[in-house]
Each structure stands twice: as structure tokens, then as C-alpha cells.
Design brief:
The chain has 151 residues and is mainly alpha-helical. The chain is rod-shaped and about 110 Å long.
């Protein structure tokens, strides 16, 4: 059931036509993070099973640990005590830090893109107004010249 859900979720995140590349990348990174947190929770339980002083003894505890590790909160309430558990922790940390960096970069790109579009629209609109103003000035000068010439 879970792999089917993940497949559909990834298809929804990545399959939208017209979605910008940075949003697709952020969606893919988020999907990878979710998979790493779920798999990391399972892997750390396997690595910690039967170890002396292990406090990651159930999947809910391990899932909470992987979430706080990926977000770099690290309350310290749960932690791996075995070398393989710590390797899993390092992977969850690196993927979490990378993912949040990518999502932050995607949001920043989106905001900058919107501002550039707004400025381009304003500049284009000002250019159009400039041409109209020049045309109106030419018409006024023509009328003034005719009035001065008496025609």
C-alpha cells in the first residue's frame, strides 16, 4: 500500500505540465526526504535492535527521531547508539539539510521571478506610455506651429 501511495505522490509532484523546473526540483527533493525519513526510521530500528542503551525501540519513536534529525532540531530525547545507527542518522541529516536548502532556494527563485515579471510589466507599460506621450507631444507641436504660422 505504501509504495503505491509514494508512487502516486511522486507522480503528482513531478508530473504537472507547465510547472517550473525549480518547483519540480523542490517537489522531488521533498519526496526524497519523506522516503529517507520513513526508510531511515525503519533502518535505525534494525541497527539499534538489541543494543545496550538503545532508545530507538519502536517505529513511532524512530519516526520522531528522523523528523527531528532531518529538520536539524535534535532535541536529544532519542539518538542512535550503534555505529550503523549513527550512519543512518548522518544520511538523514545530510538529506534533510540538502532538501531544506533546495526548497528555500526554490522559494527564493519563485519570489525573484515574480518580482522580475512585475518589473518587466511595469517597464513595458512605461515604454508604451512613453510612446503615446511622444505622439501626443508631436501633435501639440504641430498644432502650435500651425497656430504660429497662421494656417
Amino acid at each position: 500500500m505504501l509504495p503505491g501511495f509514494l508512487t502516486r505522490a511522486v507522480a503528482v509532484l513531478l508530473g504537472r505540465e507547465g510547472r517550473s523546473l525549480h518547483l519540480k526540483a523542490a517537489g522531488a527533493a521533498t519526496a526524497v526526504l519523506v522516503v529517507v525519513m520513513l526508510a531511515g526510521s525503519w533502518a535505525v530500528i534494525g541497527a539499534e535492535e538489541g543494543a545496550r542503551g538503545a532508545n530507538l525501540t519502536s517505529y513511532p519513536k524512530a519516526l520522531w527521531w528522523s523528523i527531528e534529525t532531518a529538520t536539524t532540531v535534535g532535541y536529544g530525547d532519542f539518538f542512535p547508539v550503534t555505529p550503523w545507527g549513527r550512519v543512518v542518522g548522518a544520511v538523514v541529516m545530510v538529506v534533510g539539510i540538502t532538501t531544506y536548502g533546495m526548497v528555500t532556494a526554490a522559494l527564493a527563485t519563485w519570489f525573484v521571478g515574480r518580482e522580475q515579471k512585475r518589473r518587466h510589466h511595469l517597464a513595458y507599460g512605461a515604454h508604451e506610455l512613453g510612446e503615446e506621450a511622444v505622439r501626443a507631444l508631436h501633435e501639440r507641436f504641430d498644432r502650435l506651429e500651425r497656430l504660429l504660422d497662421g494656417k
